[in-house]
Amino acid sequence: MADLRGSYCYYRGIDPELGRDFIEEYRTALAFAKSDPLVMRVFHGNDRRVFFRRFKSYALVYEAFEDAILVKAVADLRRKPFFWSKR
To answer: Helix 16-35 to helix 2-14 angle, to the nearest 10 degrees?
Structure first.
């Protein structure tokens, strides 16, 4: 996923440990979304989001289905709003 890779590379360029921390935040958000996909409220169309704790301007944007989730973006919320909506 280009969003994840780009953000990881940015933070890794600052400090390798920061890059690892970013990936760990992604994994935590993904695990949370998978554990109870419907717990987060719908905020745009059918999209839901889990905010990163440490990297506060980031969120995992996903769509929930009965037996799966579809990750649409690792969104930097400072970017153009809803840039992922056509995915």
So the answer is: 150
